[in-house]
Fold:
Amino acid sequence: MANLHLNQDEFENIFKNHLKIETYSKPIESLFSLRNRDRIDYKPYHQRNYVWDVNKASYFIESIILGTEIPPLIFFNNGENTEIIDGRQRFETIKLFMDDEIKLKRKGLSALKNLENISFSTLSSGT
Structure:
């Protein structure tokens, strides 16, 4: 078995020369495009399961609609696909809403109570 211990120089070399960190904003439409949906693994083995109930999901979607700053999603690109390493609950909530798998619930809405039982397709169609 190979030696799994790194000395200080080897450790620093990995972080200085082999990790690429990029920070940028991306519109939700781009993040959830058909091309990106197939490449993003939002359920890697190391992530906990989706646990948000529809009320918490409604509150989060309302925050997006209101333009509230939300925490970033953190991705890891392994060369073949992209994994979410932080933000699965947020990512999956957006996906579920955009796929019309959840509707907003009044109990989860704090400012936009009029959006109760609204789905993404209803919201995006303007009806």
